[in-house]
Every structure is written in C-alpha cells, then in structure tokens.
C-alpha cells in the first residue's frame, strides 16, 4: 500500500510543482512586460507633469553654441619653455589663436637625457602679468611633480581657456614654463650636477 501511496504523493507533488512553475513563468513574463511598458508610461507622465522634460529630437546640436565664448575677438597664446637641468623641454606648437571662453589644449614634450630617474616640477609664468588672473588651466602637468625614468620621453597636455573678462587691450598672452629637478642638494647645484 505504501508504494501506491508514494506514487500518488509523487504525482500530486509533480502536479503542484508544474502549477508553481507555470505561475512563476506567468509572473516573470508579466514583470518583463511591466518593465518594458514603463518607458512610454514614464515619458507620458513626464510630459503631463512637466517634470524631467526630455530634449526634443528636432534640435540640431550642431546649432547649439556655447554662449560663454566671445567670438568677436581672438587672443594669441604664445608658448615658451625653459629648463633648469638635463632635460629637453618644449611645446609642440609655438602659438595658437583662441576666442576668450573657448577650451584649448596644448602639449609640451619633455625628455630626461640622464641615465637615471629624476623628479621634476614645472612652474608657469605669464606675460603680461595682468593676464595671470584670466588664464584658467583645467588640467596641467604643472599641478604635480613629474617622475621621469632614465631617457624617458613624455608628452604632457595643458587644457585651458581664457576668461572672457580679459581686458580687450590684451591681444597676446605668453605662457612660459620653467622645468626643474626637484630634490637637488645645494652642493649639487654648485658642483654642476
């Protein structure tokens, strides 16, 4: 009798498992459908309430201009490099023209000509000096010390813009960097090392 009872119990258990599987599949399909339907529902709710309005597709992003760029004038930026130590250090371009407010990037190249690792730092200076407050660097190798391996060559960018509040009589700005070794002892400088 127990064999018969066991098989009936197993059949009932299989039937219950089958029902549970079907219910779970229906729930999974309904959840997927609900998630898929949320996208257009979300857009409709946003349009009705005026919250989080999405950008219309008929706007051509090429026509959108940065209103902070002063396209009525150009400023020439000249680049200079000086070294205190065994380096080759120079900008990849000698000058560029930018509109105030326009983002620009220039690359400086440095080569450690020694057969050992050296730490160095670049210090910027500006001419005319009044332009210093209007020259805004967003990213610069001068923000931290540089470690160069023996005979290593590296390109280091400077990303900047000129504040549109720059006085109109300033037409040219010179950005000059002095690149020098960090950690030299006073005796090393006198000995020429």
TrEMBL record:
It is a single-pass type II membrane protein. It is found in: Cell inner membrane. The keyword Membrane applies. The keyword Transmembrane applies. It comes from the Bacteria. Keywords: Copper, Membrane, Signal-anchor, Transmembrane, Transmembrane helix. It holds the Pfam family CtaG_Cox11. The chain crosses the membrane at residues 24-42. NCBIfam families: PRK05089.1 (NF003465). Exerts its effect at some terminal stage of cytochrome c oxidase synthesis, probably by being involved in the insertion of the copper B into subunit I. PANTHER family: CYTOCHROME C OXIDASE ASSEMBLY PROTEIN COX11, MITOCHONDRIAL-RELATED, CYTOCHROME C OXIDASE ASSEMBLY PROTEIN COX11-RELATED. Belongs to the COX11/CtaG family. This is Cytochrome c oxidase assembly protein CtaG. It comes from Undibacterium cyanobacteriorum.
């Amino acid at each position: 009798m127990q064999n018969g009872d066991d098989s009936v119990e197993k059949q009932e258990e299989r039937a219950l498992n089958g029902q549970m599987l079907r219910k779970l599949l229906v729930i999974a399909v309904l959840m997927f459908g609900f998630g898929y339907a949320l996208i257009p529902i979300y857009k409709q709710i946003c349009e009705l309430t005026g919250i989080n309005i999405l950008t219309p597709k008929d706007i051509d992003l090429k026509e959108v201009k940065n209103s902070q760029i002063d396209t009525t004038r150009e400023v020439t930026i000249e680049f200079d490099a000086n070294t205190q130590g065994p380096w080759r250090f120079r900008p990849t371009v000698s000058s560029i023209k930018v509109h105030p407010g326009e983002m620009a990037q220039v690359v400086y190249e440095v080569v450690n000509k020694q057969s050992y690792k050296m730490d160095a730092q670049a210090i910027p200076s500006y001419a005319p000096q009044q332009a210093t407050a209007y020259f805004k660097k967003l990213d610069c190798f001068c923000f931290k010390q540089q470690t160069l391996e023996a005979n290593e060559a590296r390109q280091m960018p400077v990303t900047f813009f000129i504040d549109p509040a720059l006085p109109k009589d300033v037409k040219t700005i010179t950005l000059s960097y002095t690149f020098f070794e960090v950690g030299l002892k006073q005796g090393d400088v006198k000995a020429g090392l």
